Amino acid sequence: MENKRETFGSRLSVVMAMAGSAIGLGNIWRFPYLAGQYGGAAFILVYALSSFVLALPIFWAESIIGRRGGGNTFGALEKLAPGTRWKSLGLLTVLTPIVLLSYYSVVGGWSVDYLFKACTLSFQGDVQGLFQRFISSPWEPVIMHTVFLSATAAIVILGVKNGIEKFTKLTMPLLFVLIVAIVIFGLTLPGARAGAEYLLKPDFSKINAQTVAIAMGQAFFSLSLGVGTILTYASYVSKKENLFISGMGTALSDFLFALLAGFAVMPAVFSAGIAPHEGAGLVFDTLPYIFSRMQSWVGAVVAILFFMTVLVAALTSSISLLEVGVAYLSEEKGMSRVRATVVLGLVAWVVGILCSLSFGPLSSFKLMGLSLFDFLDNLVATWLMPVGGLLFVIFVGWKMSKDDVRDEFTSGGTCNVRLFNWVYFLMRYLAPVGIAVVFVTTLLN
Ligand code: TRP
After folding, report:
1. Which residues of 423-441 are buried (b: 16+ CB within 10 A; e: fewer)?
2. Which residue minimizes the CA distance to atom 14 of ligand 1?
3. pLDDT tens column, 288-337
4. Can you name the CATH fold of 11-444?
5. Which of 302, 337, 352, 394 is deepest in the core (most CB within 10 A)?
């Protein structure tokens, strides 16, 4: 089977597909509201450090395992450490992405609906309470979740080259163009300056243990780490490819996009006289309010462009979440690609419906005091992803032989030879300790 595996067509496609996975709702929905809640520029500084010093080494670790093991998480670990229990980590990484996909797709569905609302000029007039009414209704969000998930499945069924690669190559440049246009527009609004300053002038007194933990968690989420997504994508990367560069390229574009999203949202928020710490409703609740107060055609155009950006960014990430499990089922269990996609899609669909209903009809059903949606988000983002990331980096730093790691990272000694010792140090010591710190801090909270 080994030689029949697809590979990405070129270095550009690798970075684009990985960046497509990384850049998503995490950047455009989660990052701006976290930056707003946890101190603006100071938060961004901590986030930058976490992304490049702690998260990027895990990215490289997953790339090394994926390409050397040449397969899905389970197969790759079994090949590199035969007969050990490491392969059970593979099962975790099949389950986690599907759980994540199920509620990710609910938010993806919101963006489908909001794009639709923007196109039908629903953000003109009074939008107070619109978001609350929408997410608590039993039908609309469920239908939109179905639409979003079907689109995800359709792209995955087309395959790595014809589906994922084509789609990301087409859409990633578009995403950057769109977000830059929105940033430029936002900065011209009266009073926008204060918003830009909020993101640029750090107030160091805002940095504390919680800020650091949240920033690290966000860096993880944003780079798609800890669940085997990057590992699986790396197995499609050709042996000649430079892993240092594909990792660095992805991390840089992911970081840049988060910053741009911050600058697309925050100046507008300040210009409307709204406080930056609105929380999770910042994009779906506050922005429509801002659009509704603009001159009607301007508001409509900006709203359409904005929610189109959210939707496309969400799609390029959700396909990567589905691909992890599809690679596993088709390679380990001999299922056809179509069948694997349909089976996993159905699981995510059912769980997602329950998540969606947890904002409305099922809102009284609580797990550990949280709605199903919040419970799963918490389970995945605070626990399963960091555990996965920690185990991956321990595998590379402590289980694989240093020679093997060097051979893979330097593509057989042809590149990155001088950088290797630094990267190895980060993977062996700094990243595991960093993640342990996140754990202890979250536990203490
Ligand atoms: N990184 C994506 C975002 O920022 C979400 C995502 C896609 C993800 N695949 C993942 C997160 C795998 C964790 C693991 O929206």
Report:
1. bbebbbeebbebbeebbeb
2. 224
3. 888 888 777 888 898 999 999 999 999 999 999 998 889 888 888 899 99
4. Hydantoin permease (1.10.4160)
5. 352
